[in-house]
Specification:
CATH class of the largest domain: Mainly Alpha
Oligomer: single chain
Number of helices: 8
Largest sheet: 3 strands, mixed
CATH architecture of the largest domain: Up-down Bundle
CATH superfamily of the largest domain: Cation efflux protein transmembrane domain
Radius of gyration: 25 Å
Strand order of the largest sheet: 1-2-3
Strand content: 5-15%
Number of strands: 3
CATH topology of the largest domain: Alpha-lytic protease prodomain-like
Length: 305
């Protein structure tokens, strides 16, 4: 089982390769299920798995780029590449939803009987089990590696699981009631569900590209680390944070007595930096030293130009 492997083996690239393999397997299973049943609901499920494959491939490309070291053209690194993965996945999901609505609309006007229901449902459930297992592992690894690409792919796999569950219920209902219109209605419901998830992924990607602040728990850890140094002699202000893929950044001003030597001030700043990085692994801190009686102002209209 994947979740029993050591954490060092569950890296974003390896898990995304696993996602590609699982996507190929589920595409085969779901396409076969649609072929033998002629269910538009199962067709919509197979179409979403195609999106899974494209998304996993693009996510692997972006994660590979994000892991590149900083260079002259990208001095802050390439971590934001993962946000493009999340946004791209959202766009593909929305496109798949529109395709499902189009296919289901035609079938709603011309209902068709469903064949070999048992085999179709069995294949759909098997593919859902594979997606669910992989998503569970990826969520844990995404938290460990702080990877938005893994998190986005895992969320999409969970959406796929719920999609398949809805399709299974719908097809079973068609088989029990004989109401053929239920099949395209379920497909449209599936499309609306994944449309919501696609919009959510695009929103998260846009927030990351706009330098969204760090998570509340990370900010609390930063503030807790600063409290140990904040007293009558030293104080901090203008604490601002941002995230860039796996990386977290904090900028702040540290005020201290003007009569301190540069060496003493630098030593204290080093201690603060080490404390911050211990509190938040991977954090990059930029600390500007200022005398206690000097304030930095950011409200000058010229700064807004």
């Amino acid at each position: 089982m994947l979740h029993l492997l050591p954490a060092r083996f569950l890296t974003p690239p390896r898990l995304l390769w696993a996602s590609i393999v699982v996507a190929l397997i589920t595409i085969t299973l779901k396409t076969l299920a649609w072929y033998i049943t002629d269910s538009v609901g199962l067709l919509s499920d197979a179409m979403e798995s195609l999106v899974n494959l494209a998304s996993a491939i693009f996510a692997l490309m972006m994660v590979t780029i994000a892991q590149r070291p900083a260079d002259e053209e990208h001095p802050y690194g390439h971590h934001k590449a993962e946000y493009f993965s999340s946004g791209f996945e959202g766009v593909l999901i929305i496109a798949a939803a529109m395709g499902i609505v189009w296919a289901a609309g035609h079938r709603l006007l011309d209902p068709q009987p469903i064949q070999a229901v048992g085999w179709g449902l069995a294949l759909s459930v098997l593919s859902s089990a594979l997606n669910g297992l992989l998503a569970w592992v990826m969520f844990s690894a995404a938290k460990t590696h702080r990877s938005i690409a893994l998190d986005a792919d895992a969320r999409h796999l969970v959406t796929d699981v719920w999609t398949s569950a809805g399709v299974v219920v719908g097809i079973a209902a068609v088989a029990l009631t004989g109401w053929l219109w239920l099949d395209p209605v379920v497909a449209i419901g599936v499309a609306l569900n994944i449309l919501w998830e696609g919009a959510h992924l695009m929103w998260r990607a846009s927030q990351g590209l706009m330098d969204e602040a760090v998570e509340p728990d990370v900010l609390r850890a930063i503030q807790k680390a600063l409290v140990h140094f904040d007293h009558d002699t030293i104080r901090f202000d203008h604490v601002t944070t941002r995230r860039s893929g796996q990386r977290r950044f904090v900028d702040l001003h540290m005020h201290m007595p003007a009569n301190w030597s540069l060496g003493r001030a630098a030593a204290v700043r080093t201690s603060v930096e080490q404390s911050l990085m211990s509190a938040v692994p991977g954090l990059r801190a930029t600390i500007q030293l200022l005398p206690s009686d000097v304030e930095a102002h950011f409200d000058d209209p010229r700064d807004r130009a």
